[in-house]
């Protein structure tokens, strides 16, 4: 999409993506707290304006599912810009002659994408996937600022659980064990992904 935009619009979109990516985690999380605030939040106001009256005064952080949904939106909002800018940089390295040859041979947009773009960026896809896994595993600050793992442990991940046990309950031995388990799970996932990337 970025490749097809005009230069000025492309620059604006890329600047917006870079700003979203560069915003400090705590600042971004605080902004989302304001956006989803029950009485004065922009999200509730917008939903009510669109006719969803059930969201009048809706408390997003009192329900586990709603809190989890807000966290997912926050993490995606913070991680997508890096993936988008990296993929755009990768697209600019693909020779234009390949696309021209494919279109001369009668390939449509979908065929060109699957036969040229995807193979050329396969390793980049794998690298981005690995980095996104690390990013998601590191989303402790967002969870702790928004909900501290609640309500009813609905947003408690392994890092949050390890912190709660170690710092709140003073079970440093068990907290360390959970932290090591997190590292092992991450290592297995990343090594498997990187091996596939090297083989390809």
UniProtKB/TrEMBL annotation:
<dbReference type="GO" id="GO:0005886">
    <property type="term" value="C:plasma membrane"/>
</dbReference>
<dbReference type="InterPro" id="IPR035906">
    <property type="entry name" value="MetI-like_sf"/>
</dbReference>
<protein>
    <submittedName>
        <fullName>Sugar ABC transporter permease</fullName>
    </submittedName>
</protein>
<keyword id="KW-1133">Transmembrane helix</keyword>
<dbReference type="Pfam" id="PF00528">
    <property type="entry name" value="BPD_transp_1"/>
</dbReference>
<comment type="similarity">
    <text>Belongs to the binding-protein-dependent transport system permease family.</text>
</comment>
<feature type="transmembrane region" description="Helical">
    <location>
        <begin position="174"/>
        <end position="194"/>
    </location>
</feature>
<feature type="domain" description="ABC transmembrane type-1">
    <location>
        <begin position="1"/>
        <end position="195"/>
    </location>
</feature>
<keyword id="KW-0812">Transmembrane</keyword>
<keyword id="KW-0472">Membrane</keyword>
<dbReference type="GO" id="GO:0055085">
    <property type="term" value="P:transmembrane transport"/>
</dbReference>
<keyword id="KW-1003">Cell membrane</keyword>
<dbReference type="InterPro" id="IPR050809">
    <property type="entry name" value="UgpAE/MalFG_permease"/>
</dbReference>
<dbReference type="InterPro" id="IPR000515">
    <property type="entry name" value="MetI-like"/>
</dbReference>
<keyword id="KW-0813">Transport</keyword>
